[in-house]
Amino acid sequence: MKDTTTINAMRDALMAAINDLAADHPEVVLLEADLAGCLGSGSFKKLYPGRYFNCGIAEANMVAMAGGLSSVGLVPFAHSFGCFSSRRAYDQWFLSVNYARRRVHLIGTDPGITAQLNGGTHMPFEDIALMRQVPDIIIIEPSDAQSCYELAVQAYESGKSSYIRIPRKSVTHRYAPGKVQLGKAEIISEGSNVAIIATGELLVNEASKAVETLSGQGIKATLVDLHTIKPLDTELIAEVAARCGKVLVCENGRYAGGTGEAIAAFLAQTNPVKMDFVNVGERFGEVGKLAYLQQVFGFTAENIAQKAARLAKA
Amino acid sequence: MLDNETLLMLKTKAVRLRELTIREIAHLGSGHIGGSMSIIEILTYLYHQAMNVDPADPLKEDRDRLVCSKGHAGPAVYATLADKGFFPLDWLMTLNQGGTNLPSHCDMTKTPGVDFTTGSLGQGASAAVGIALGQKIRGFDGAYTYLILGDGESQEGEVWEAAQTAAQFKLGNLIAFTDLNKKQLDGWTEDIISMNNLDTRWLGFNWHVQRINGHDLEAIDRAVLNAKAEKDRPSMIICDTIKSYGFGPGERTFGNHSMPISVETAEAAIAELHQRFDVKEA
Predict the structure, then answer these.
(1) pLDDT in tens, A58-112
(2) Residue B83 pLDDT more than 90?
(3) Cis link prior to A177 (omega < 30° from 0)?
(4) A4 in a domain, yes or no?
(5) A171-230 pLDDT, tens per residue?
(6) CATH for A299
(7) Which residues from chain B sit within 8 angstroms of residue A51, using beta carbons?
(8) Domain count, chain B
(9) pLDDT tens per residue across span B149-188
(10) Using the beta-carbon criterion (under 8 Å), do B116 and A100 form an inter-chain contact?
């Protein structure tokens, strides 16, 4: 099991996983859409030049091509910014990959507000909702380097298609090697007053800080890192909802069709509890540095703590 | 070059495939007859002369592959595959019925011998580029990917994204046909979004380009052999065709993209088909 402690960007953790998979599996190929510099996939090109293809700024073609490659026994990873790999190439992803029962791993970088200075045009808020419409795929949004590496490998080994949603440059080191398991959410802290379920590095980190704030107020919070959005770990969600009776879902994206709605729909059927949500609401994205955007969209420890405290007392 | 015996066999086969396609659609009562009839010679040539495929082993990895990107021509593809032995002929009578293996648009997960799922126009072009590239990566030397595009379909921007990519990757093993039947669902292509200068468009994308009569089996043969001689460039064979060619009632109907066909109409049309096209032994 690879140790990623020395890796200092999420993209490097993902590329380490893809490069290691490619070493063991000659069927792994990598497709880029003129964003190789952003993912750092030059490392793959150097190691496996015959399996690396820059398809240019034509994401729809790249994704349907990946479907074609898959039908000749290859297993493509394909990358663009999340807004383009999801929104722009959606029909191709839906039909030429998944309806056709092909197997492709689609990478969407710069999720939600992490697109920062590229601004609203480059902010995928709806990629999770789009991906959730596709039957039988895996959606992962790892919250640290180690889980990024391991979940990418596990997604590959699942034999299914996957959507991998990661920020590029930031990095967190949270998990020891061999801990995370695809489809099984991680409990980061345990408490019975309120459950906070968060996805992705940014919001799991902010929620972690919020848990400390809440603790100072005498509120004991359970924090769940929901690194796998599909399939949803309903067993664990049911358990924390039963224990806390209050659930706050934090996601770097939109409620409609997103993670919060998925959890709400599940709990509505099984154990309707009081819920609240941290997400982008009805806004479009906008340009700015991360700290500014976190304030605008409420993706801060303060906002999470406030919402969680209100929920805990409700 | 085709010898007389082979040419006779292919011409006879084309009549049979038209007959099967007409019966298949008539059994259902309606369907995409126009664009099915216009590619019969292309399919006949591919499956009986060009392609290395084995109905007993339809998933053989190093086989030649066909992507019928104009997926609505599924009925013609199914007639060809059934006749070739990929599945029983009586499956043709299940076209589009609930639970069928022969859905309106080609589906690789349902129909033995279908190499890629199509229906959302333009996507088959990209998929074919991926397949041709994959054949090279896998080292399947001598394996070709064939692609059939519609002229109306070529209004899709993705076709041209695929075109530039195939040229960039020097996919000499990709041989495409445009079924230039001049019509799309709503009418003449010329009146909707013109596909004029199609040859220079493909030339501009650095493809090897030929233009032939798409109902002339000898011309198809020459063009495919020429295309195979091009090692580093993908090939486009633009085929002038007639929508619904060989199905008389369709040829005489303007709106022939998809049309109702009764069994009686079909039988009369098949009689007409034999009268027009049956090869008379010398």
Answers:
(1) 999 999 999 999 999 999 999 999 999 999 999 999 999 999 999 999 999 999 9
(2) yes
(3) no
(4) no
(5) 999 999 999 999 999 999 999 999 999 999 999 999 999 999 999 999 999 999 999 999
(6) 3.40.50.920
(7) 137
(8) 1
(9) 999 999 999 999 999 999 999 999 999 999 999 999 999 9
(10) yes
Instruction: Establish if B128 belongs to a structural domain.
Output: yes
Alpha-helix runs per DSSP H in B169-262: 189-192, 198-204, 217-229, 248-251
| Tokens (6 digits) for A238 | 């049911």
> Does residue B119 sit at the A interface (CB-CB below 8 Å)?
yes
The answer to whether residue B282 is domain-embedded is no
Same domain, yes or no: A15 and A137: yes
Complex ipTM, two decimals?
A: 0.96
Mutant choice from B69, B117, B171 vs A, greatest count of A C-beta within 10 A = B117
User: How many structural domains does chain A have?
Assistant: 2
Does one domain contain both A73 and A123?
A: yes
Provide the domain limits for residue B10. 4-277
- Which pair of structure tokens corresponds to residue B142? 């001598």
Beta strand pairing status for A186-189 and A221-225? Answer: antiparallel
Domain with A61 in it = 10-166
Touching check for B106 and chain A: CB below 8 Å?
Answer: no
State how far the Cα of B126 lies from the Cα of B259, in Å rounded to an integer: 29
Average pLDDT over residues A126-134: 98
pTM of the complete model: 0.97
Domain CATH code at residue B131:
3.40.50.970
On whether any CB of chain A is under 8 Å from the CB of B133, the answer is yes
Query: Rounded CA gap, B25 and B19, in Å?
Result: 10
pLDDT of residue B280: 73
- CB contacts < 8 A, A to B, total 105
CA distances, B51 to each of A205, B18, B43, B114, B237 (Å): 57, 20, 10, 13, 16
Q: Which helix (H) or strand (E) holds A107?
A: strand A105-109
CATH classification of the domain holding A122: 3.40.50.970
Do A207 and A74 lie in one domain? The reply is no
Please indicate, yes or no, whether residues A160 and A19 belong to a single structural domain of this protein.
yes
- B127 at interface of A, judged by CB pairs closer than 8 A: yes
Contact A177, A145 (CB under 8 A): no
CA distance B255 to chain A (A): 28
Are the beta carbons of A65 and B123 separated by less than 8 Å? Answer: no
Contact across the interface for B133 and A68, Cβ inside 8 Å: yes
Q: Which of B109, B130, B135 sits opposite A66 (nearest CB)?
A: B130
Shared-domain flag, residues A258 and A160: no
Give the span between the Cα atoms of A263 and A57, in whole angstroms. Answer: 36
